[in-house]
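Note to self: keep these together.
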Amino acid sequence: MAKREKFTVALAADHAGFPLKEALLEHLMKRGIDCIDCGTNSTESCDYPQYAVSGCCKVLDGEADLTTLCCGTGIGMSMAANKLKGIRAACCSDVFSAKYTRLHNNANVLCLGSRVVGAGLACELADVFVDTGFEGGKHQRRIDMIADLEK
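Structure:
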């Protein structure tokens, strides 16, 4: 696969998270970040696990650097995403958690609840998640331990 020129974020949502996903897409694209929309494309009832997989596969396949998943609480998406080997998904509703899940846990998926956070806070959380890098050091040992649990 050819190396991407720009930072890329994949986004996916179920019906409850659809409006939040749309707001995030608009916000991230205004920042000049390449986005991959993995659906859903309406508020018609659907099953969040399939959208968690479609969004996470973009990171696992190297098509995206990070993924953001939206559902009603963010919890269902987080639970589904974390079943996939290589995914470290975190459900966040505050800036501190969004920052430190990248710094210390090298999270590659941000899960947000549309019934928990509004669009303004969600955009702020996405910005922090995208703009924060992994600190490495002693934290890498812990990430390796998590990866060992997947074996």
